[in-house]
Write a structure and sequence with these properties.
Layout lengths: L1 H31 L3 H13 L5 H13 L3 H14 L4 H11 L12 H11 L4 H24 L3 H34 L1 E5 L3 E5 L8 E6 L3 E8 L2 E5 L5 E5 L3 E3 L1
Antiparallel strand pairs: 1-4, 1-7, 2-3, 4-5, 5-6
Length: 249
């Protein structure tokens, strides 16, 4: 009975892998022949079937970009960057697409500080910052031990200096890792997917509109209320939008 179960299980895995590879090949061929709508359909089918990777989101983003669907292109680039923050191609294509958005929103925070903070936190995922913290502690302990056990004045000076730098490194990476973790779970962002949308005063279709946003604009999600989400911009403006009009990152 167990043997039959394992045979069926591995047959299912094999069939799924082959199907996924065939569909991926079909999607890539469609993209190469500039049949972007077909490529989008195949890539979306792969995602619906559970095949997820930053390359898949990146390729889907490229397909949407070529099909002139800027909002969905940026949304998928953001999902790709979420899975692999250090991929240079994702960063470049996301930057190119974001530069074509209509809405230019001024931030209340100093632009230089905001840009540096965003880029630094995005350099590693939370596990990356954790490993750097652990490495810093190990280096600190090793050189502290060397400082205590050595009888050479020169070695003591060098080991004390390295231990001090390692301690600063640990404190810095711990703080950045904690900030990245808070940003990951407390700050939820979304991308406007439709050409233009009215931002409402209240979560109802009959409410008055406050302002408009256009596809590709990145917004902060503050609260969910059924089919509506409360969003906030970097300039402090906020309002309600339909959930199906945005893509949650």
């Amino acid at each position: 009975m167990k043997l039959k179960y394992y045979i069926l299980f591995f047959a299912f895995i094999f069939t799924t892998s082959v199907f996924g590879n065939d569909l991926l090949t079909t999607a890539e061929k469609a993209y190469d022949t500039k049949n972007y709508k077909e490529a989008i359909k195949d890539y979306e089918k792969l995602l619906a079937d559970g095949f997820k990777s930053y390359q898949l989101y990146f390729n889907l983003g490229n397909s949407y970009y070529r099909d002139k669907q800027l909002g969905k292109a940026i949304y998928n680039y953001e999902l790709a960057r979420k899975l692999d923050p250090n991929d240079e191609d994702v960063r470049i294509n996301l930057g190119i697409a974001a530069a074509k958005t209509v809405d230019k929103i001024d931030s209340k925070e100093n632009f230089f500080i905001a840009a540096v903070k965003t880029n630094v936190l995005a350099s590693f995922d939370t596990s990356g910052w954790a490993w750097m913290s652990v490495l810093s502690v190990i280096v600190f302990c090793l050189f502290l031990f060397l400082f205590i056990s050595s009888t050479s004045i020169m070695i003591k000076r060098i080991s004390l200096f390295v231990a001090f730098i390692s301690l600063i490194g640990f404190l810095s990476t711990y703080f950045l890792g904690y900030s990245a973790l808070r940003s990951k779970y407390e700050n939820k962002f979304a991308i406007i997917l439709v050409r233009e949308i009215k931002i409402m005063n209240e979560p109802t279709s009959t409410a008055s509109s406050k302002f408009s946003l256009h596809e590709g604009t990145k917004i902060r999600v503050v609260e969910n209320n059924g089919d509506w989400v409360l969003i906030k911009l970097d300039n402090g403006n906020e309002g309600w939008v339909k959930l199906n009009s945005v893509g949650i990152i």
